[in-house]
Amino acid sequence: MKLADKVAVVTGGARGIGLAIARRYVAEGARVVVADVDDKAIDAGLASLDAGERVIGLRLDVCDRASIDAMVATVMEHFGGIDILVNNAAVFDMAPVLEVTEESFDRQFEVNVKGLFFTLQAVAAAMVEQRRGGAIINMTSQAGRRGEALVSTYCATKAAVISLTQSCGLDLVQHGIRVNAIAPGVVDTPMWEAVDALFARYEGRPLGEKKRLVGEAVPMGRMGRPEDYAGAAVFLASEDSDYVVAQTLNVDGGNWMS
């Protein structure tokens, strides 16, 4: 029960890694807000958690400042504070550099960077007002550690998240708020079906081949599963990481070392 009585907000929390983290947080004693842009996914996520009044679902569009502010206000009123934020909401797209559209570029930066930052800002402001510190965990990616030919924009957004984690961590630590990040590797979620289809299109591969190859290339011999990231999220949210600030923790089966 490392998170007993803590209040945690998980954006993009209705499925995949976000839902796995929400489930583990509940098991560790936290009260959890599943914040997501998809109402149907929220309902399904809450049903799978089956945690009663300890979990609520809220619709959140991280691209809308009013939506962010409304989410924070609702959580403050309902649970009386916020102790943990997991900034997990993100979108993905890929294309060769010569085919990247302005719409795709703007959308990825709007959600993955701008949305993440202003969600962090709003929650941090509430934490400062509470005067009890807090923990903020940004979800980045191994894609933020290097460039990839077909994933230029996404890689750039995730590199920005690593940089923001460092800057925000150094700024907010004076308020007792620890900002850190988790960098997953390749993760076996439903989104990978769409990713695999894009690789099939641009690399001329049969469907399923890219997913198989990236899994085999991981030193541990498989892709990550959503639950593989829950332990790191508990660590960075708990007192066990009280002296960890502005760091990005690689959780990728040995795929990237830094």
Automatic annotation (TrEMBL):
Segments crossing the lipid bilayer: none
Domain of life according to the entry: Bacteria
UniProt record, GO biological process: fatty acid biosynthetic process
Residue intervals of the Ketoreductase domain: 6-185
Keywords in alphabetical order: Oxidoreductase
InterPro entries: KR_dom, NAD(P)-bd_dom_sf, SDR_fam
Molecular function terms, GO-annotated: L-iditol 2-dehydrogenase (NAD+) activity; quinone binding
E.C. code: 1.1.1.14
SUPFAM superfamilies named among the record's database cross-references: NAD(P)-binding Rossmann-fold domains
Similarity section: Belongs to the short-chain dehydrogenases/reductases (SDR) family.
Official protein name in the record: L-iditol 2-dehydrogenase
Lineage: Bacteria, Pseudomonadati, Pseudomonadota, Gammaproteobacteria, Oceanospirillales
